[in-house]
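User: Okay, second chain of the day. Same drill as before: sequence in, structure tokens out.
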Amino acid sequence: MLLHVFVIVCAWMRVLQGIVEHCQLSTPCGMDVMLDGCVPRSSGLSSSSALVCCAAMSTARANCQQIEQVVIADVCAKCERYIGTMGGGMDQSICFLAEVGKAKLIEFNPLKATAITLPDSVSFVISNSLTEINKAAPSSQFNVRVVEGRAASQILAKNHGLEWRSFKKLKQVQDALGKSFDEMLELVKAEIQPGLYTRQQLQEKLEVSEEELLSVMLSPQTETVKSFNVYNRALHVFSEAQRVVKAAELQGNPDAAQAFGQLMTSSHQSCSELYKCSSVELDELTAICRNAGALGSRLTGAGWGGCAVSAVPSDKVDSFMAQVKQNYYAKLPERMARIDTALFATRPGSGAAYITV
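Assistant: Same drill. Structure tokens below.
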């Protein structure tokens, strides 16, 4: 408990730093704060991002600062990186930009969120595998995946005569080359070797010293990692982005629910096989969910544990949850002890807001 409190205080201070820097506050005011929440930690449900966004909103309000939602989402994404997680801004963006009953197609540079109407006949069921991972830990594969994507972007950029040192993300390469997702997938297959790259091989591929490799590709969290599966990670990134676009295009399609579920299942398979961010428990849980009647099921959040989200016909939610309870949670007493918060149905809600009492 004391460690949990310490982590919360450290996170809050990092957010305070980010808001102070953004608003150029010379003398930020103090706050008396009572904090409560029910989002399970390390569950893939954005508990850390929820804390960061809450801290940012509170700090801004206490200092009489009005910040647009799009701007504060970007500030919060940067704040979370202070804690040691090399994530993007997806979680923070949806925390602020969510709408009731809508999915959001979120794009970056600049941040843009497009509302996508979801099928009325579908509900979403969250099921927690009850396994956890600390994404900010030095040994975390979360930060390794960021570097593997960066390595892929730099290899492709160098192959095509671009100023590769400035490339950090695969989307940047795609935009620079003006290629479709299918074309980028073919480039990956043609230009990046399957299997592992050692650090020495990356140095040779990019024609840099070890010191420069550390500077332009690696990070403090990954400087001791010896090998990287660049090929599989790049295949996942482009195919996953393609699935997102296909899902958005289903809006208004009479077969949207079934097709959306199939995309979710394909996404989980790619996460498990190519990105390697699933777990034995998540693979088991999503299979149970599909067998229980889900149109589709995939891990949510960073992976390596945490929750699965399943698209379920609204009229079958009760029977679905009963089967998942029996086939996953009832197997172990420690799972059943947490069933009340581990398995629940939901629909998209609104974003973060101030409530005056």
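The CA atoms of residues 102 and 118 lie 6 Å apart.

User: Thanks, on to the next one.
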